Structures are given as structure tokens and as C-alpha cells.
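Researcher: Structure for this, please.
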Amino acid sequence: MELKDAVVLITGGAIRLGRAHGLFLAGRGAHIAFTHLPGEPWVQTKQEIEVLGGQCTATELNLMDVSGIRRWVAATVAHFGRIDVLINNASPWLGRPFLEVTEADWELSLGVNVRAAFFAAQAVAPVMLGQQRGVIVNVTDLSVFEVWPEYGHHAIGKAGVVQLTKYLAAELGPHVRSVAVAPGPVLMPPSFTAAQLRAAAEHTLVKRLGAPEDVSRMIAFLVEHDFLTSHVYFVDGGELHVPV
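Model: Predicted structure, C-alpha cell format:
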């Protein structure tokens, strides 16, 4: 699929990796529709995307609201006339020891990571099937394949994203493809110290940190290559295979 003039939906697109994906894909000629939470710098992100030449819409949306997801998708179709790519990017970052995880923690983590991704995909699928083309990109992470203490509830949600990717590919193919990306150390938490950043870089095979654009380039590659579907693609500098 060509990215030029493609309509790309991104959940959580105002900040961090979502913002990077929007800017990168707009730079390749795509039009962007993203969701954001209250207080996020969505105006700045929207303006930066528009400077690159693409059209852009920004929608404040609580992804726990399934009817809101459906309204967002319908409004995007009404505005652009089509949907070519969905990037299920939004994800809360909730660390909590297993014995302290609350029902609210669980509901938010699973609700945004996998429930919202499921129903966003369900909302765009009829549009994509009608067009006989579309790509759904789900963002998982290494917590599914490693053990991150205090992030069990997060990892369970991201594991659901991996399974969702496979089933979407099977049920929506051949015209709609579904892939997942698993970023590694490409955008560390702002609270990380210099020592923590050095340790994260050392815990890769390339001995350096990546950048958000490394993941964005992988997403562009997956969208453009029509023979790729159903798998997880790692952008982790080899972290997953660092000898223990």
C-alpha cells in the first residue's frame, strides 16, 4: 500500500511514540487522524503534521468508551472518505506490584491495551473490507516476551494484542492485513537517570538506544509491503536475545 494520501488513524497520537508515528507518516504523504487525552499538546502535534503537508484531525477521546471509538471512526470516514491504516498505539504505563494491583488498574490496562484495540479494529474493518484494502498495526512490547516485575497486568494486555493481531489477519484477510510491532528501548521514561539510560543501552546487542523514528520506519515498511501479515516485528536492538 502506498503511504501517499493514505488515511492513517492513530490512538494516543499527541505525544511520545504516537506523535512520532504521525509526523513520520505525514512526512511520507499520509493524512492523519489521532486521538488524545485532555491536557495533552494536541494542537502543537496537529500543526506540526499539517506543516508537513498532510491533513490532520485531532479528537479528544477516552478509549475506555467503545461508543466514542465508533463515533471517532465514523467522523473520520465522513471527513476523509476512507480509512487505510489503523495504528493501535495508546497504552497506559502502569507499574504496580502484583499484590497491590487494583480492579481499576486492571480495567484501565486491559481496557486501553486490548479492549480498545479490539473495538477500534472492529470499527474500521467494515470500511477497509469495503475498500478491499487496509492495514491494522497493533503496538505490543517486550513485556510479553520478558518478565518485567510490577508490570504483569500491563504484559497480559499486551499479550492480548499479539493474539488479536493473529486473529484479525485470519478473519479479515486477504484484503485487510494485521501486524504488530514490539518496540524496545526507543523512548525511555523522562524519569530515567543517566545511569539507567546507559544500562538500557548496554542491555541490547547494538549497545545503544533506539529512537521513536525506528519504530515509525518499521510501521511504514509494514504498511507498504503487502505480503506481511499476522506476525510481530521487533524493533529492540536485539534486546530480546541478549545473553543472560
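Researcher: Any notable elements?
Model: The chain has a mean pLDDT of 97. The radius of gyration is 17 Å.
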